[in-house]
Amino acid sequence: MSFSIEAKIRDSIAICGTILRKKGLNYVKKKIQIAIDGPAGAGKSTIAKIAAEKLGYTYIDTGAMYRALTLKALRQSIDLSSEDQVTALLKESTIELKPSENGQLVFLDGENVSNEIRSNEVTSNVSSVAAHASMREIMVELQFEMAVKGGVIMDGRDIGTAVLPDAELKIFMSATVEERARRRFEDNQKRGIESSFESLKEEIALRDKKDSERKASPLVQAEDAIFVDTTSMNIEQAAEAILKLASERMA
Ligand code: DC
Q1: Which residue range forms the structural domain that includes residue 38?
Q2: Ligand 1: which atom is nearest the Cα of residue 123?
Q3: What is d(CA 102, CA 104) in angstroms, rounded to the nearest whole number?
Q4: Is residue 135 within 8 Å of 129, Cβ to Cβ?
């Protein structure tokens, strides 16, 4: 008896859903996983943050986790080229990402290192740390656990290929090296950080090369990812493009 009542309720919900969809109203939205990969400075984090806020999703910046580990390795003068030492260091570390009013905060062993992980020293060494396969296996596991319930936008280099291979929406975001360097330069100027456009361009090109040529989960576009070139887009246009694609996948 109760089974047939449940079945009737289910049928009624399904009929309502069909009517709403026919009217073009998608009230029932799935909480999906959105993977955004691409090279440094393509605008991934800025755009992912805006899109996550509009969708009520959690934004997860995986690069921040590699940066936190790099900071610890530098502080302890660990040999960054040693896979064993870097992996052992991660095993004895706690890296947490916590949302706050001022964006995502990064904690390393309980210490707020959100600013330190953006230093030039960390930026120029993070690709060497991120290259180690056994360390990445642990990072990928941690990141997968963070995203398992859906309702997330995760950005990085290997999200669509290694962390969330079943993500409902995969984006590969890029822009020319010149444009990416220009954005970093303007960003630095706003923050009062002195930098030269030419050296930023060189640093970005070098990091692209290291991230794309490493053996472990190199930066590549997943076969089922959509390529978004942000060279001639502003932030709002790029965020709008992502939201449109997300809305199609959530329906
Ligand atoms: O996104 P970002 O610039 O903060 O990333 C810092 C570095 O971390 C980047 O040079 C490569 C590495 N990284 C990675 O290997 N895999 C990820 N999923 C994210 C970042």
Answers
A1: 5-250
A2: 6
A3: 7
A4: yes
User: d(Cα 156, Cα 237) in Å, to the nearest integer?
Assistant: 21
Query: Tens digit of pLDDT for each residue in 117-133?
Result: 999 899 989 999 999 99
Which one of 59, 115, 116, 126 would you pick to mutate in the ligand 1 pocket, going by the greatest count of ligand atoms within 8 A of its CB? 126
Give all strands (DSSP E) within the chain, no chain letters: 33-37, 58-61, 95-100, 103-108, 111-112, 152-156, 169-174, 226-229
> What pLDDT, in 10s, does the model give residues 29-56?
789 999 999 998 899 999 999 999 999 9
* Count of domains observed in the chain: 1
Only one residue has tokens 């706050």, namely 100
Return the CATH number at 131: 3.40.50.300
3-state SS of 218-234 is CCCCCCCCEEEECCCCC
Residue 115's closest CA among 106, 103, 124? Answer: 106
* Closest residue to atom 2 of ligand 1, CA basis: 63
Q: Whose Cα sits closest to atom 20 in ligand 1?
A: 63
pTM, rounded to two decimals = 0.86
Bridge partners of residue 104, in order along the sequence: 99
| 211, 161 Cβ separation under 8 angstroms | no
